[in-house]
Amino acid sequence: MFNAEMIAFLGYFIILFFIAMIFFFNGDNKNQEDYFFGGRSMGPWVTAMSAQASDMSAWLLMGLPGSIMAFGFGQMWIGIGLALGTAANWIFCAKRLRKFSKAAGDAITLPQYLSNRFATKSKTLQIICAIIFLICFTVYVASAFVAGTSVFTMIFPRVSEQTGMLLCALIIIGYTFLGGFKAVCWTDFFQGLLMLAALLAVPIIVVATQDIDTSLLHHIYQYTDTSGAVVTCDFGSGIFSASWKEIVSGLGWGLGYFGMPHILVRFMSIEKPSMIKKSATVVIVWVVLALGAACLVAYLGRIVVGEELLTQGLQKTVFMVMARKYFLPVFSGLLLAAIMAACISTADSQLLVASSSFTSDIYKPIVRKNASDREVLWVGRLVVVLVALVAFLLASSKGSGAQAIMNLVENAWGCFGAAFGPTILLSLFWRRFNYAGAVAGVVSGAVVDGLWLAFLSGNTGIYEIVPGFIASFVIAVIVTKLTAAPTETVTAIFDHASHADFDE
């Protein structure tokens, strides 16, 4: 028997699928540029909201509020790092990347952009990038399936975890397969609005209807985790109660934005570079409001449901529990849909970027050089399904396996940021930068990030993206200095893209 909460929740996703069907049957995806890139026709509002929706996964509504609720505002340094990274990326990189990708042969993927930027016929960098994309994005998508499953099983208690995960996967695969980039961007636009509205609504209603006893913040709770260890939940004395290692690592998260493919591709897809300023304003306002609201959810959650959740280690459910406790079922259904929206809006973009990288950087240039646009388009759709299938199998692992995938999200973020961030920045701002430096930067960033994670992260307490990013930047510069200067063709691309009036 369906109730109002279930109907509202399901109704939202029926609308998403309907949007995808419109794009499919209207024939908007005639070729790979349309399917993977939207034909560079995205407006400033859609670009901005789609970028944020694809960026902020369920971490924004589950991970961050839960962590702050359990361990205090010192955990907010990750959010501060992400906010600063978001602003810097949009202010300094977005417009230049849009212009540079256009000047570099109308590139539709980051690996393709880098190869075209350096006017090279070598496929080495494209292949390396595509492999990293496929591995990391598969992990990302798996984590979205895991997070989405918890929402399904809460709303539909009779549905098994496996069935819930299958439904989540089918929703994501369905409209990504059919709709392509435009459908993903337009659905992400509405999902970004829903996420923000949900985050703002919960603390507003709690403050308006409940007596807030701040003394409850300082109650210390304990629970036993899956390994048998006792975890103490102490709110602490404030944001500066964190150690310098936690602060450095938290701020280091912001470095990831400079190398995050599913976000950077939004910059490349906007209709005109002149629209970037409006998009940047929308993004920065959204980020400040969303992160601030997430902190308020954690703060108020510790007061009103702290004992209920923190004695059981259920802090990641704080938003869901508060939504169901303080809202009518029809509204709580929409609020819980916001968590699914966060999962889906990230996973769909990642599936599309992984697919576009395989088809544009491996299949078309190496496997089937004479492949038609129609063939590439359908191979891309097949890759969407295959990546999602592998992600589903990973996410279906029981117990520690599924939890490990959730934990690996931060490692995938670190790998992307360390491997691609310095190379992207240098390609946009350093005229002398060459292809050898780019290859060295990508490889060294990924290697150092991985080695630090494996051997030093636990001992040092420093997030691996920080040493990985630094190493990648330094090695890219050194290799560039030690190798031949870029050709006149390469410097001409840089000068052309840097011209104030280009593509405006």
In which range does the helix fraction lie?
Answer: over 70%
Tally of distinct domains:
1
Low-confidence stretches: 399-403
* Overall pLDDT: 85
Individual helix count: 20
CATH superfamily: Sodium/glucose cotransporter
Strand content: under 5%
Tell how many strands the DSSP assignment holds.
Answer: 2
The whole-angstrom Rg is: 22 Å
Order of helices and strands: HHHHHHHHEEHHHHHHHHHHHH
Q: What is the CATH class? A: Mainly Alpha
**Main beta sheet strand tally, sense and closure:** 2 strands, antiparallel
Distance between the termini: 56 Å
Commentary on this structure:
This protein is 75% helix and 2% strand. The chain has 20 helices and 2 strands. The chain has a two-stranded antiparallel sheet. It is globular and about 70 Å long. The relative contact order is 0.18.
SSE arrangement:
Elements (H helix, E strand, L loop, with lengths): L3 H22 L6 H6 L6 H12 L3 H13 L5 H27 L6 H8 L6 H32 L5 H49 L11 E4 L5 E4 L10 H9 L8 H9 L6 H29 L1 H5 L7 H9 L2 H39 L5 H23 L4 H30 L5 H21 L1 H4 L4 H18 L5 H11 L6
Antiparallel strand pairs: 1-2
Jot down its keywords.
single chain, 504 residues, mainly alpha, Sodium/glucose cotransporter, two-stranded antiparallel ribbon, 2 strands, 75% helix, globular
